[in-house]
Amino acid sequence: MVVELFLDLRSQPCRALFIFAKKNNIPFEFKHVELLKGQHLSEEFGKVNVLKKVPALKDGAFTLAESTAILLYLSRKFNTPDHWYPSDLQKRARVDEYLSWQHTTIREKGCKIFITKVLVPLVVGQPFSPEKLEEAVEELNSALKQFEEKFLQDKPFIVGNEISLADLVAIVELMQPVGCGCDIFENRPKLVEWRSRVEEAVGKELFQQAHEIMLNVKNMSTTQLPPELREHLKQLLKP
Amino acid sequence: MGLELYLDLLSQPCRAVYIFAKKNNIPFEFKHVELFKDSILGRKMPGGNNPGHSHEGQQYREEFGKVNILKKVPALKDGVFTLAESTAILLYLSRKYNTPDHWYPSDTQKRARVDEYLSWHHTNIRSNAGKALWIKVLIPLFTGQTLPPEKLQEVMDELAISLKQFEEKFLQDKPFIVGSEISLADLMAIVELMQPIGVGCDIFEDRPKLSEWRNRVEEAVGKELFQEAHELILNIKELSNIQIDPQLKEHLAPVLRKMMK
């Protein structure tokens, strides 16, 4: 039985998994869980991940949530090239360090831009708040500054000369605001260069494929959310 | 030069690192960073206009700035290698010092369960458990204002949601998160859940399953070590006598205003 990956490519961590699995020729079944249709809230999906979130993995009877855990599981099970999660103790620690830090910084603030600009308007049926968006952008700016100063510095990739899980997890998050029309790469030459290197290391075609749906997010503004999903989101997004 | 761990036991992740190192007899130098006295939030002019601060204090702050540019505890220094983030530090120590397997099991699926918890932890248990301390003690200390009881209730309600998920998804009916033995997952969880206890919010009350798990964790860690690590937070009232550095107050003001909203 082949590994099943439950994904929606609108979700950043799902993209990281998709890219990682494809790049490493890991055979898997793509189980599409359409977030905008509320499919993640179904009882059926709840059996795969009781937290009702994507991504999720099913490997026989074994189910797993959390993209970091899934990436590491796949890297071990399928013996992916060392550079993704280096066996060198200190390099590995650098990957762990980034994967830990990013939850409440790059990921959180990148999400906030998407939520403010795209999701909230979809739920409440009103245009987004420019003040809230500005606040979200400022917060991401702060995180980006730390990203460049502490994690990237003057290296080609976060850990050194080669791409790792850290770069992969970072890039998919930073593409989210881009998809919303907030080009966070503008005026950040170092970041732009890093992004180019990451795209090349992953393979431009695969990178584009993973990001196609997100880069056409404008189509989302006409989406009709199912009422159950709308209610669920209203609860989640309340300030 | 040996291993240095920069810690303040008021901080939950610092306690996890402290307990782990002590339990595993990992030799280290405890570098005490007092969060509210030494202001690790970054002084812009370490050599300059800081009247009333000792030269040694300034040097220490500069040194600490070099250790961890993010200026958060815990931090590790191993020769020239520096490392932030408790998860990364715990994993690094477990590998370097070859700690017993149960902490981060070599079995692929058990290991995945630890990774799964450690990831989910950040934006659930960790983001919620610490707030009670801020609402009940720290914000009043910094701003001189007490917050309305609804604020605390709101925070505790959010924590209750995380605790429900913790029990249903991660703990279930097992003795520990991964199975029959304690792992890094349990350690990271327990130190967070002790934070509200320190300010009188006993989240274990009315949660027998969680309470039993806590006892098992305490026993696996060793009651004495557990008590030692938690002495500071369990005596938090002492903190209210501390003079807060005005620059620190100023620096934290935007953060605090947000938390008060």
UniProtKB/TrEMBL annotation, chain A:
Residue ranges constituting the GST C-terminal domain according to the UniProt record: 88-229
UniProt-listed PROSITE patterns: GST_CTER, GST_NTER
A biological process term (GO) from this entry: glutathione metabolic process
GO molecular function: glutathione transferase activity
Reactions it catalyzes: RX + glutathione = an S-substituted glutathione + a halide anion + H(+)
Entries under CDD domains matching the protein: GST_C_Theta, GST_N_Theta
One cellular component term from this protein's GO annotations in UniProt: cytoplasm
Alphabetized InterPro entries for the sequence: Glutathione-S-Trfase_C-like, Glutathione-S-Trfase_C_sf, Glutathione_S-Trfase, Glutathione_S-Trfase_N, GST_C, GST_C_Theta, GST_N_Theta, GST_Theta
Major localization listed first in the record, in broad terms: cytoplasm
Gene3D superfamilies linked to this entry: 1.20.1050.10, Glutaredoxin (3.40.30.10)
Keyword list, A-Z: Cytoplasm, Transferase
Enzyme Commission code: 2.5.1.18
Localization, UniProt: Cytoplasm
Coiled-coil residues: none
Domain GST N-terminal residue range list: 1-82
Family (UniProt): Belongs to the GST superfamily. Theta family.
Subunit structure: Homodimer.
PANTHER family in UniProt: GLUTATHIONE S-TRANSFERASE THETA-1, PTHR43917
Protein's name according to its UniProt entry: glutathione transferase
Gene name per UniProt: LOC112103641
TrEMBL record, chain B:
Subunit record text: Homodimer.
Main localization of the protein described in the UniProt heading: cytoplasm
Catalytic activity: RX + glutathione = an S-substituted glutathione + a halide anion + H(+)
Gene Ontology, cellular component aspect: cytoplasm
Organism field: Terrapene triunguis
Domain of life: Eukaryota
Pfam families: GST_C, GST_N_3
A single GO BP: glutathione metabolic process
EC numbers: 2.5.1.18
Identification of the protein by name: glutathione transferase
The UniProt record lists the keyword Cytoplasm: yes
Classification via Gene3D superfamilies: 1.20.1050.10, Glutaredoxin
Membrane spanning residue stretches: none
